[in-house]
Amino acid sequence: MPDWDAKYAAAPEGLFGNAPSQYVRQIMARWDFKARSGLCLADGDGRNSRWLAQQGLAMAAVDLSGVAVENGQLLDSKAGVYVERTVADLVTWQPSKQNFDAVFLMYLQAPAQTRLAALRSGWQAVSPGGWFVVEGFAKAQAAGEAGPGNPDLLYGLEELQRALAGATVIEALSGRVRLDEGERHQGLAEVVRFAARKA
Ligand SMILES: C[S@@+](CC[C@H](N)C(=O)[O-])C[C@H]1O[C@@H](n2cnc3c(N)ncnc32)[C@H](O)[C@@H]1O
């Protein structure tokens, strides 16, 4: 597993840049997405939660790396927004609130047990009618340049569909897209994108 603290310590201005994921922007632009509160899991130094806070959502975020969370708090202050940031391991973390209008899990690269725990606890935190949005490298990206190069840390679409079997699926896609996610993630990559709502 990567040493995330070391990676974030070397990039205090944002490990994956300061712009949000393209998929977060796409979801925000939907006519039927009207979230007023959100939670970002494995949020790193917070490019996604910070941007969502700038759009007016009341945001909370969780990440394993204490350095990422500290960097995120400084970047939030510079941006003039507040995000309630928590350092926690998603394997054991449980949401203290279960009423977020939208929960985002973007680019968690972790073993299957961690991915499943994040999907389960993230889903619990979604309010009725709320959204759960997941994006990450697909297993096929193990052969590509971006990402950890280990298929065991990457997603298969079927695992999302299985873990979130009770969800109303809005999009469940796996394929090749041209990424523009900071300096580290540019160019074609195999990703999964999954958006679902709770009844
Ligand atoms: C590739 S980064 C993505 C960060 C952020 N979501 C983004 O898109 O900029 C993966 C993040 O997952 C976090 N992470 C890895 N394992 C975790 C775990 N068990 N619990 C919480 N966060 C974890 C890392 O600390 C890292 O910040």
Describe this structure in words.
By secondary structure, the chain is α/β, with parallel strands linked by helices. It has a single domain (about 5-10, about 20-195), classed as Vaccinia Virus protein VP39 (Rossmann fold). Helices cover about 30% and strands about 30% of the residues. It is built from 6 helices and 7 strands. The chain has helices at about 5-10, 20-30, 45-55, 65-80, 110-125, 155-165; strands at about 35-40, 60-65, 85, 100-105, 125-135, 170-180, 185-195. It has a 7-stranded mixed beta sheet. It is globular, with a radius of gyration of 15 Å. The model has no long low-confidence stretch (mean pLDDT about 95). S-adenosylmethionine (SAM) binds near residues 44, 63, 89 and 106.
Give keywords.
7-stranded mixed β-sheet, binds S-adenosylmethionine, alpha/beta, single chain, Rossmann fold, globular, 199 residues
| Chemical compounds bound to the protein | S-adenosylmethionine
Uncertain stretches of 5 or more adjacent residues: none
> What structural class is derived from the secondary structure elements?
alpha/beta
What would you call the shape?
globular
Bin the strand percentage.
25-35%
What is CATH's topology name? Rossmann fold
Series of H and E elements:
HHEHEHEEHEHEE
Domains, number? 1
Assign the CATH class.
Alpha Beta
CATH architecture tag = 3-Layer(aba) Sandwich
Strands of the biggest beta sheet: in what spatial order? 3-2-1-4-5-7-6
Q: Write out the CATH superfamily name.
A: Vaccinia Virus protein VP39
Radius of gyration: 15 Å
